[in-house]
Amino acid sequence: MTSDINPRDSIQPLVSTDGPVLLLGGARTADTQGVLRDMLAIGALGQAPVVAADGGAGLAIAAGLAPAAVIGDFDSLSDADRARLDPSVLHRVAEQETTDFDKALRAVRAPVVVGVGFHGARLDHQLAAMTVLARHPDRPCILVGPEDIVCLCPPRLRLQAEVGSWLSLYPLGPVSGCSDGLEWPIDGLELTPADRVGTSNRVSGPVQLEMGAPLMLLILPRPALRPLLEALSRSDARWPARAG
Predict the structure, then answer these.
(1) Could you tell me which CATH class the domain 147-237 is placed in?
(2) What is the mean pLDDT of the chain?
(3) 41 with 114: CB under 8 angstroms?
């Protein structure tokens, strides 16, 4: 039987694990299935619980995966896909104030979540997903697209990225920090979306970042997923929950 969850802030953990969770969304590009196949080939993710945000259940079904939970308002879950799912994994959240990504992320407790199907398609949906990352800084989450990966930069990050590869920092509000291992350090700079941003930097050695606020997006090429997954799984790579 489908469970109904109503108040915005009352979602209890529906999936809890000591390892990563693979979260699937409904944003499709020509490469989404290929991106998912690549994620499943990564040891830690190949064995991870799968959670679908509403229409992301279709991506799971097409890949032969059985989601541990399907969470959302179900406005994009097709009748055909719904009929293929065990009703006990369906959890409808009726409120319309937040996206299905937000609803699903709030219902997962894991050291890190890896999301596929949340960016690379419609720009407005992609921007909304970035807002969700900033709204829940206490829930480390990496969104994987056809070309790149993105997460909210934690308070401290140690990352073994490939020397010479690109690394971008994009502020969602005024934020400053410090860095090691970047060709153009950010020390002493205040980055803001309307003035100075940190895109198209380059890795010059082992990367260390410290941020003063949970407002910085870290964007990397897709091959950096494994080291970023390891880095975000550390206990110090987490902001406190936002008040209210």
Answers:
(1) alpha beta
(2) 91
(3) no
Residue 140 has pLDDT above 90, yes or no: yes
Residue 230's nearest CA partner among 49, 19, 17, 16 is: 19
User: Residue range 63-72: average pLDDT?
Assistant: 95
Non-local CB neighbours of 45 within 8 Å, separated by 6+ positions? 20, 22, 39, 114, 229
CATH node for 1-146: 3.40.50.10240
Q: Give CA–CA dist 61/70, Å, rounded.
A: 11
- The vertex-44 CA angle with 237 and 63, nearest 5°, equals 120
Alpha-carbon span 39 to 226, nearest angstrom: 10
Q: What are phi and psi of 28, to 5 degrees?
A: -110, 135
List pLDDT tens digits, range 73-124: 998 889 999 999 999 999 998 888 899 999 999 999 999 999 999 987 788 9
Task: Decide which of 4 and 13 is more confident.
Answer: 13
pLDDT at residue number 26: 85
Residue intervals of the chain classified under CATH 3.40.50.10240 are: 1-146, 147-237
CA nearest to 66, candidates 88, 41, 34, 44: 88
Q: DSSP string spanning 24-44?
A: E-S---TTHHHHHHHHHTSHH
**If pLDDT is split at 50, 70 and 90, which confidence band does 5 have?**
low
Q: Which residues of 148-168 are buried (b: 16+ CB within 10 A; e: fewer)?
A: bbbbbbbbebbbbbeeeebbb
Task: Give the C-alpha separation, 193 to 217, whole Å.
Answer: 11
